[in-house]
Amino acid sequence: MKHVNPSFEAVRPTIGSSFTSLKFLTNENIKSHVWHYHPEIELIFVCKGSGKRQIGSSISYFSDGDLVLIGSNLPHCGLTNENTHNDYEMVIQFKPDFLGEPVWNIPEMQRISALLEKSKAGIVFGEQVKKTIGKDIVEMHEASSLDRLCRFLKILDELSLTQDYRILNAGKYYLQTQIEDNERINLIFNYVKDHFKEAITLEEVADLANMKVPSFCRYFKKITNKTFTRFVNEYRITHALKLLAEQPLSITEVCFESGFNNFSYFNKTFKEYIQKSPSQYRKEFNFFME
């Protein structure tokens, strides 16, 4: 199977606007297998539905929609596919200097400027923020000209005020600073994405990166702020979360479908990452959805 580096995506502003605002109905924006990046900052709202998000070195599961802010040149996959079952998806893309560089230095823009700085590591917002801002994004999309811009700035300001958010990539995740790093690390990411259900050895991924195992381990930790084993386990646990929430499989079947070949190790790892057992997670998820 061929592995590709994240592709550069050219983004064009909406006609008559300084930024891009797009609305996609169900299954219209299927990019969950497309690893890409662009200089534009991206605010994505998924209305309802559930799925996996991979932004930088962070892999996580979302349910009942999503609201994320992805910084400039931060590699990511699309959030929706034919199995997400979302109502629609809103995508806003804008360059860091879309209002001109000096504007971010004025006092009124300091909070938003700080928000955009944080977005370099990827931000996911909480439930209440998601519902409120999601409606605002739809209304903004349907507005025109200066009204649209004013509504957009208000959205960014509201996001800059909330404490209900989580940074997706611990530490600094700036893969875009080194082209060689970008190509190498994303070759590894794609390999994990394609083979996480199989046994993956350090030797084979180190060979893929043209490195010795000790050098590869140090390199991967430096770039992603986590060990390679942790990265693979996170990918597998995220897939398990998706299966537990969406498929009528037994816990044992979920274990092996997620790439774990030892049931007790799966339970231990799951509890370590999620702070509850797989059966407890499924029970609480079903109760929440009901």
UniProtKB/TrEMBL annotation:
- SUPFAM superfamilies annotated for this entry? Homeodomain-like, RmlC-like cupins
Q: Which GO terms describe its molecular function?
A: DNA-binding transcription factor activity; sequence-specific DNA binding
Which keywords does the record carry?
A: DNA-binding, Transcription, Transcription regulation
**Which branch of life, at top level?**
Bacteria
Give one Pfam family, short name only: HTH_18
In terms of InterPro entries, this protein maps to:
Homeodomain-like_sf (IPR009057), HTH_AraC (IPR018060), HTH_AraC-typ_CS (IPR018062), RmlC-like_jellyroll (IPR014710), RmlC_Cupin_sf (IPR011051), Tscrpt_reg_AraC-type_HTH (IPR020449)
The UniProt record lists the HTH araC/xylS-type domain at: 186-284
* PANTHER family given in the database record: ARAC-FAMILY TRANSCRIPTIONAL REGULATOR, TRANSCRIPTIONAL REGULATOR MTLR
Name the UniProt record assigns to this protein: Transcriptional regulator, AraC family
Organism the protein comes from: Chryseobacterium oranimense
